[in-house]
Specification:
Blueprint lengths: L13 E9 L5 H15 L6 E8 L10 E8 L2 H8 L2 H13 E10 L9
Antiparallel strand pairs: 1-3, 1-4, 2-3
Length: 118
């Protein structure tokens, strides 16, 4: 989390990508259920979050079992930092840290509007 990005309304949101590894003994099903039922459901309470998705790394590409990555699109660094101080976000972090760890982070800004078929 290094560079400032434009606030909401900007054509260039900030994208954060985290590589995630489950703690030993945590079942992928437990983590994925939490992502679907809690993590995604909390996103509307975080005004700086534009889009969020967690993706499973296929076993053939994983360096160890239970690897994922998440893509977080935010309106800007400052807005997301405000979200990170909120109670809903702190609850997410507390739950997440019981199951997994972020092993790498990349941040960037989309070049142009990108492409989306729908």
């Amino acid at each position: 989390m290094s560079s400032a990005a434009p606030e909401h309304g900007s054509a260039t949101p900030t994208v954060i990508v985290h590589r995630i590894r489950l703690h030993e003994g945590v079942a992928p099903e437990r983590f994925e259920s939490w992502v679907r039922d809690v993590d995604y459901a909390t996103c509307p309470q975080l005004p700086g979050v534009v889009a969020f998705a967690v993706l499973r790394v296929p076993d053939a590409e994983a360096t160890s079992p239970g690897e994922y990555f998440e893509i977080i699109e935010v309106t800007g660094r400052e807005a997301f930092e405000r979200d990170m101080r909120s109670e809903p976000f702190r609850r997410l972090v507390a739950d997440f840290e019981k199951m997994a760890v972020v092993v790498a982070e990349s941040t960037g800004e989309r070049v142009g509007s990108g492409y989306r078929s729908r």
